[in-house]
């Protein structure tokens, strides 16, 4: 996932929604944490949804889940892998 035209701000939050075994995977970024939590909940609880879980992470916390020696997009990909492996808890 690349954000080539958008600068990541400290007030940003990232929504990661995952389906069974990570398929599909959905990632979004916004400044409103409540909006992303509501979106993740809606995505998970829709009648025919393929999404099984989601997590909202503050952008300044992304590197606390991973190492700070990688790019933001790489850190998100590592978080997705850790979510799938059960190393990080979700909603």
In short:
The protein is an alpha+beta fold and about 90 residues long. It is about 35% helix and about 25% strand.
**Relative helix content:** 25-40%
- Total strands: the figure is 3
Instruction: Give the overall shape, derived from the CA principal axes.
Output: globular
Largest sheet: 3 strands, antiparallel
The strand line-up of the biggest sheet is 2-1-3
Order of helices and strands: EEHEHH
Using the CA coordinates, give the radius of gyration.
Answer: 13 Å
Unreliable segments (pLDDT under 50, ≥5 consecutive)? Answer: none
Q: What amount of the residues lies in strands?
A: 15-25%
List the total number of helices: 3
First CA to last CA: what distance?
22 Å
Specify the structural class. Answer: alpha+beta
Give the averaged pLDDT, no decimals: 84
Please characterize this protein's 3D structure.
This protein is of the alpha+beta class and 91 residues long. Helices cover 34% and strands 23% of the residues. The chain has 3 helices and 3 strands, in the order ββαβαα. The protein is globular, with a radius of gyration of 13 Å. The relative contact order is 0.23. The mean pLDDT is 84.
Architecture blueprint of SSEs:
Layout: E1 13-19, E2 25-30, H1 33-45, E3 51-58, H2 62-65, H3 72-85
Antiparallel strand pairs: 1-2, 1-3
List keywords for this structure.
single chain; 91 residues; three-stranded antiparallel beta sheet; 3 helices
């Amino acid at each position: 996932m690349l954000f080539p035209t958008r600068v990541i701000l400290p007030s940003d939050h990232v929504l990661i929604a995952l389906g069974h075994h990570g398929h599909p995977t959905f990632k979004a970024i916004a400044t409103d944490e409540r909006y992303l939590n509501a979106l993740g909940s809606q995505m998970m609880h829709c009648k025919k949804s393929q999404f099984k879980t989601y997590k909202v992470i503050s952008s300044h916390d992304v590197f606390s889940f991973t190492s700070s020696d990688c790019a933001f997009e790489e850190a998100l990909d590592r978080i997705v892998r850790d979510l799938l492996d059960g190393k990080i808890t979700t909603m």
